[in-house]
Specification:
By secondary structure, this protein is an all-alpha fold. Helices cover 81% and strands 0% of the residues. The chain has helices at residues 3-20, 27-32, 38-73.
Length: 74
């Protein structure tokens, strides 16, 4: 098999894969997906930031309790 035939086969394989996008298991999700509006993006960033702060606060509280509480009783 020469180089030209091999390249045609590779090209055909790539084109078939591209045509199958959106028809498989996740096709419906890909078709429904869209870029979020600025307002939606800002809300997601704010909620994510609040979640990070809450988890960080709980972690700091646990660290503080584990550091200072044993010396308080002991």
């Amino acid at each position: 098999m020469d180089v030209v035939e091999k390249s045609w086969e590779v090209q055909k394989d790539i084109e078939e894969r591209v045509q199958r996008i959106g028809k498989g298991k996740y096709g419906r999700v890909i078709k429904m997906a869209r870029k979020p509006s600025t307002d939606e993006y800002i809300k997601v960033v704010q909620i994510t930031g609040l979640g990070l702060l809450a988890i960080g606060g709980v972690g700091f509280l646990i660290y503080w309790l584990m550091t200072y509480l044993p010396t308080y009783f002991g």
